[in-house]
Design a protein that fits this description.
single chain; about 120 residues; mainly beta; 11 strands
Length: about 120
């Protein structure tokens, strides 16, 4: 099973930027970012097909977040710009063997990294 490890979270002010990274021990067809705020369900944020040919974004982050990958480093990134307080959550990277926006269909998960955005 592919091991995933996130890094790059932190506490910032509204309007600031952060870049999250997800280091993977191997490759999976579909890699995504999810997030979960306290008391809420885990929600899809962004997806990239390994190889970078296809990306998808949740409407709430479209135009502000960018998902990318570095094949040589087996690392996926999430560049988050114009952060808002409602972006505060634990962010998880996940891998799946097919394209999906549904958390239960992902078989590999990182431990999560906290992002806190203050107004």
């Amino acid at each position: 099973q592919v091991q995933l490890a996130e890094s790059g979270g932190g506490s910032v002010q509204a309007g600031d930027s952060l870049r999250l990274a997800c280091a993977a021990s191997g490759r999976m067809l579909c890699m995504s970012w999810f997030r979960q705020a306290p008391g809420k369900e885990r929600e899809f944020v962004a997806l990239i097909a390994w190889g970078g040919t296809t990306t998808y974004y949740a409407e709430s982050v479209k135009g502000r977040f960018t998902i990318s990958e570095d094949n040589a480093k087996n690392t996926m990134y999430l560049q988050m710009n114009s952060l808002k307080p409602e972006d505060s959550a634990v962010y998880y990277c996940a891998g799946a063997t097919h394209y999906s926006f549904v958390p239960r269909e992902y078989t590999s998960w990182g431990q999560g990294t906290q992002v806190t955005v203050s107004a």
